[in-house]
Amino acid sequence: MRKFLQISILVLLAVPVMAQQKARKKTADKNGAVVKKPLAHSVYDFWQDNTERLITNDGRFFVYGQNPQEGDGKIIVRELVTSKVDSVKRGSGARITYDSEFAVFKIKPQLALVTAARRAKKKKEELPKDSLAIYNLRAGSVEKIPAVTSFKLPEKGGSWLAYQLEAPLSAKDKKDTTAKAVKPAKAPKKETEENGFKLIVRDLKTGAEQPYGYVKEYAFSENGKWLAFTTTGNDSVYKAGVYVWDAATKNAKLIHAGHAKQKFTKLSFAKFNDELAFIADADTNSKTQIRLPKLYFWKGGLETAQLIADESKQPGLAGWLVSSNQTPEFSKDGTKLFFGTNPKPVVADTTLLPEEIVSVEVWHWQDRNLQTRQKVTAEQDKKRAYMAVYHIAENKLVQLADKDIESTDLVNEGNAEYILATSDHKYSHEHWDWNPKQDVYLINTKDGSKKLIKEKLEGNVRMSPEGKYAYWFSNPDSAWFAYDVAKSQLIQLTKNKDVRFTDEEDDHPDFPNPYGVAGWTKGDESILINERYDIWQFPLTNVAGAKKLTNGRPEKRVYRHVRLDQEERGIDFSKPVLLSSVHEPTKKEGYFNFDPATGLSTKLYEGDFKTGRVIKAKDSNQLLFTRETFKDYPDYFATDGTFKTITQVTFTNPQQKEYLWGSVELVDWIAGDGTPLQGLLYKPDNFDPAKKYPMMVYYYEKNTENLHTHYAPRPIRSYINFSYFTSNGYVVFVPDIVYKVGYPGQSAYNCLIPGVLSQISKGFVDKDRIGISGHSWGGYQTAYLIGQTNLFRAAEAGAPVSNMTSAYGGIRWDTGLTRQAQYEKTQTRIGGSLWEKPMQFIENSPLFYLPKVQTPVLVMHNDDDGAVPWYQGIEYYMGLKRLGKPVWMLNYNGEKHGLGKRQNMKDFAVRMYQYFDYYLKDAPKPSWLGEGLPYIEKGINQHLELMDK
């Protein structure tokens, strides 16, 4: 008779509230002091994250979300000067008015109520509804409006709010038997997805509201002067069509009348001018396969919207149509309206019976894109639109893009007389090469003429903010270039002779990546380019006069520009510039002030932590930034540009002080080939160097830059949680790996094994209780390593490539691309094709070392993995199973490369920790590990219970 022991996950999954209460219950010693406890799986749901971080333009209020991983969160409003704090339960999706007066957000119904209603099989309309919260920031008061589906605010102006209400429940839905409903002479029109819902326009300052019925779409102009909406109407007075509401008069005007069954979409206002564009579909038959969209234009002063383009009047090829999939976009100056056109779609013959339809793919050797790639992009291709432009003053239509030039971008916010365009048609058949190649064009918006400015560019091209220059990094040249539009002149900016502007540590058999561009100065005068440590300024009229702005290389300090104004188009060198800083040797991070006038960089703030996102108030010097360490969640801190006074303003997980956590430090060792290496060593709280600890090894390329990264306890998507392991008495070792081209497996051995041995030599690691875990690239290396050494007592390999020869010619199903480039040039680093280097493909494949494996191994490989085909996991599992080796494979049905469903992540966390606890800590064996899980019990029993020893 077998006795089963209850574990925390069963409590968590069966009775989550009880489990959370138990996990959060404080324990005390005989002196009353709180005794810290190890993290358990039951803590996941109530551990919190900060979201929706917004600061008012005047810098007075910080509005953010604080949400548990699973459960009801809240919106928190903090006044930064007084530190006054208020909160609204279950708030989410916050927006702040431009005048800093109000915060508006949804209030979600209680999760428990929604879950109960779903469990009771309630209809959609019977489920609990969202409410709307209007929070007056100055008064600290909140008004709640029930049953709201959506809301919108103007981006930059006005005190207006528009929101839509849910349809009221009918008497039938309410099931009211207390009174007999009186049947009206004519049933009122119902509010539905097809008919639209009630829209309310509200003056936030006065509270006055105006309702409009049966609205389908609505949009504010950026300045808040106008609100456009579409409606299916209700009678001869309130007609179907498109309306424009004027904030000055508070009146809505019908600018395009239509039929209730016609569709009006893609409402788009100009930024400054009183102009609107939209797409209309006049066909009332919903079953019509080929729709005939029409583009309309309206501006203040016009009584009705004007038809600009349709199937009979459009600038594309004969038979083309206006696209209903591309939202029209005005140039910033309002002189041009950009929109899309497309060929008539290919439609199916709906009269055919299923048995008459032939479904076949023809894989042609000259296909521009692989059939698998075409499958991935099929919906995108069906909706593809080709850019055209309407010149408003001239009433002129011009087609800009065509089937040979699909990718286009506006220049200078559409104000320029040309657009940027690229085409990869000549080169996209080279499926085995992941370095994009493309021809670059400038297309004149006046006549559609094309000018080729770069042929076969291997890199990505962009335009300077004001459109004076196109610029790019050329992979084959490992250099930055600019193209002077006015002079039609190519300018080479960098040469990599004295200074390298490409990754100095890159170890791939491919072109190294650049360090990027910091930005442009005002007027497109100079471009700022990053190298490993410093920022360089290149004047476009005198490239020889380039100068280094910072001086980080002598002390190995990395400087990067911090963009405080997200709307800033050019960096203003008339005032100081904020830089972020990372000191490579110590991993200290912080901020410096760069003064363009003196060229001096002054330290403002630095420490043993990792800095993150910086938020600046638009109209004040108030800054918010995150700071984190392994022990400290990335909470927000408030300061000004001087960083002299710093105040913590979020306190996200106060319960963490009740739990054991751990610490982290940098460690050094020498690889087998003599290369000096670094890694991270995580230790438990109350670490005793005289004790022997089990050790987990995890790795993926390089991780030492994550010295100060905080890892909150959460279910596992793919890799182990360091905090959970240290809290439960493990040491965790995370080594950096460097590679030699052609020998990825041997490189991992060369770096990792000496690193593990160096930790054992310190005396506190139990050499007989070491586990190893890796996912994807790390999963491959784990599978390889246990075929080379018996150092590990247990291993976990997630989504491993086991046989490079069979994986090489496969497809990455999520992208539809071939895997060949991955093996030749990118992460696998073989450096050649299978035919050029067959022995390296074999020698680096774990499959061929299976007879040597003596380490138990847990594999997680899911059947919808779009990155590494799950057949690789099957090959590995089947080989070990045939050889009589202990192996288990977890396949979460329908999951991809990493787990996405929370219930599966929770389950995997439990199984992985049970597995390593059994092998490394002599914990009881779980039933699934001892006896498996019969297929007929899948989804019914999980067999997580522990067996008697």
UniProtKB/TrEMBL annotation:
Domain Peptidase S9 prolyl oligopeptidase catalytic positions: 752-922
SUPFAM superfamilies: alpha/beta-Hydrolases, DPP6 N-terminal domain-like
Record bears the keyword Lyase: no
GO biological process, one term: proteolysis
Gene Ontology MF terms: serine-type endopeptidase activity
Keyword Hydrolase recorded: yes
Keywords: Hydrolase, Signal
Endpoints of the signal sequence: 1-19
Protein name: S9 family peptidase
